[in-house]
Specification:
- Chains A, B: One of its GO terms (molecular function) is transcription cis-regulatory region binding.
- Two copies of one chain form a homodimer.
- By secondary structure, chain A is of the alpha/beta class.
- Chain A folds into three domains: about 45 residues, 434 Repressor (Amino-terminal Domain), CATH 1.10.260; about 120 residues, Rossmann fold (3-Layer(aba) Sandwich), CATH 3.40.50; about 130 residues, Response regulator (Rossmann fold, 3-Layer(aba) Sandwich), CATH 3.40.50.2300.
- In chain A, about 45% of the residues lie in helices and about 15% in strands.
- Chain A has twelve helices and twelve strands.
- In chain A, the strands form two sheets. The first copy, chain A, has a six-stranded parallel sheet, with helices on both faces. The first copy, chain A, has a six-stranded mixed sheet with strand order 7-6-8-9-10-12, sandwiched between helices.
- In chain A, helix 5 runs parallel beside helix 12 and helix 10 crosses helix 11.
- Strand 2 of chain A pairs antiparallel with strand 2 of chain B, so a sheet runs across the interface.
- The structure holds a DNA duplex.
DNA sequence: ATGAAAGCGCTAACAC
DNA sequence: GTGTTAGCGCTTTCAT
């Protein structure tokens, strides 16, 4: 081989040698510390440029014990607009604190979530923001006790007392379904991802509260669990509407499901009324009336991130739970 | 103060002392190295659990000289579905390589981009994926020469020879506008973000090629620069359509602009034909015919990330430029 | 204002 | 199998 070896990264020792100063002086110049003679500083800067020196932040952090200026964000699915909006809001707050964001998606897998969280702990992030997929987060207790701030977002933690920021899932779902009921619907189908997810349980409970209050009996057939994606939602709608006793209204309990319902209703020209949890861009241009339970997703992400940074910067008050309001945007047909 | 001091993080020395072994043995156990007597391993594990020890990955990386298992991704705007899809694809590939993703948005600000990139270099990421906002990336040359892989995505780098993955912006725009021309349109407005952005220049050039080929003269009035967001797009549409010589078709050169045009056309009930670059979910449910220049955004992100990891794992071939195809999805009215 | 030496937490290299 | 020592690149402490 003709020596394709890459040039070794220069260190402060290399820079010091080249500039004819001590490493400490290089450190001072590189970090903008005061009290360095201008001529020495110039020589150091020249050596830095010549050598292509870039300070090793890992070594710096290790020795100084400073924060890594990094926070971790674990969500379920990056491409979903709900999580993308949260990520954008968190990144915005992180930037305001000169901190970078390590982002990963758990894909609703508790094992993967645990692995990711512990990995981030090893990387000594300054704080963690988690949309939990698992049900037991006690494995984080030691880290939390040693001062690692963790904020849970959208769903509560399991087995760990920690800051939590939630949406008013139950109230929003109840208010949405009440609109359907007011317009005379008695057979309302509810399509949901999985009862193992906190938000789904809450939204279903809210829907059932509204039904119960209106004296509508519970019908097993209308509650459809396991609707994981838009395709599944479309299939479920087809199946429901082909029954002898079809629903007259449908509740999509998250944005993916609502999109799937919408597509299938459009395809078959169904006139059933639709309620969705989560608003989305252009929802007002949909080819049919669509009522949505909406909220400020950006503010949601920001609240959680701001709380995290309050902890990082020393706030030691008792763990809090914040519930953000939702509101119904009613585009249904008036009767 | 009554000693609110947090317990110090235990180190391998603490674990070793507690387990009555040497640090090296702790290191072996913690890293799953072979040749440790089971009873010693058990004692170490017990001490680890008691103390809540978590290996400091920064120190480990520093000493061993191993990779950080981190890549950086710089995009323009996290919440935009185009970038969110790319981020999801990149995260997917990163995961396949047991690597985490540091993500940041430059917000189209070259200074911020430079700052972020150099920060990531200090953090010793294993590679960089960049949707460039700036025009000069020569400040990365030293890093690249020392072996840092960098892949540019969606737009080419400035002043730096590096791997690049692009879309066929020009060909896609040309093909899209050709459809409009085929249907008899002679006055086609083009709304674009900024001519300083590479993709915009290419898309406008493609549109003009199609017009020129059809003998359509250039009309200054119809090329609208500076359309930064959906609101601006809506305003521009209103202004164009209120002119004495309004366009009969509009070309939105990115997803944000197309959304804005769509809203305004819907609001005023305009019958003008619409072409958009970038497809989006539910575009087929829009209340009017909408032709889009589409491509596989997920594959786009994956290609770039896979190329990056090929570099990280040692591929040293000449920098490549890949151009991914687009296709027109024609939902326009047949004449 | 500058430098020498020690050491952050860990692992490589070499004992034993 | 296990332990000792040195040192990754940097910053701290304390001289001068």
């Amino acid at each position: 081989m003709s020596g394709g070896g890459l040039p070794r990264r220069p260190t402060m020792v290399d820079v010091a040698r080249r500039a004819g100063v001590s490493v400490k002086t290089v450190s001072r110049v590189v970090n903008g510390a005061p009290n360095v003679a201008p001529d020495l500083a110039d020589r150091v800067l020249a050596a830095v440029a010549d050598l292509g020196f870039r300070r090793n932040g890992l070594a710096s952090t290790l020795r100084s014990g400073q924060a890594t200026a990094t926070i971790g964000l674990i969500i379920e699915e990056i491409a979903n607009p709900f999580y993308a909006t949260i990520a954008a809001a968190v990144a915005e707050v992180a930037r305001e604190h000169d901190t970078v964001l390590v982002m990963a998606s758990s894909e609703e897998d508790p094992d993967r979530e645990k692995h990711l969280l512990l990995d981030l702990c090893s990387r000594r992030v300054d704080g963690l923001l988690v949309v939990p997929a698992g049900f037991d987060h006690s494995f984080l207790r030691a880290e939390v006790q040693m001062g690692l701030p963790v904020v849970f977002l959208d769903r509560p933690a399991g087995g760990l007392l920690a800051d939590t920021v939630l949406l008013d899932n139950r109230g929003g779902a109840r208010a949405g379904v009440e609109r359907l009921v007011e317009r005379g619907h008695r057979r309302i189908a509810v399509l949901l991802d999985s009862m193992s997810v906190y938000t789904m349980r809450e939204r279903v409970a809210g829907a059932q509260e509204a039904c119960a209050a209106a004296g509508i009996g519970y019908d097993d057939v209308l509650i459809r669990d396991g609707v994981r994606d838009p395709q599944a939602a479309a299939r479920t709608v087809a199946e429901l509407l082909d029954r002898p006793d079809p629903p007259t209204a449908l509740f999509g309990t998250n944005n993916r499901i609502t999109v799937g319902i919408l597509g299938e209703l459009w395809r078959r020209g169904g006139a059933e009324e639709l309620l969705g949890f989560d608003d989305f861009e252009l929802s007002h241009l949909m080819p049919r009336p669509l009522t949505v339970v909406s909220y400020d997703a950006h503010a949601f992400g920001r609240s959680a991130a701001e709380l995290l940074f309050r902890r990082i910067t020393g706030n030691r008050s008792w763990p809090s739970t914040t519930v953000l309001p939702t509101r119904v945007i009613d585009r249904g047909v008036r009767t």
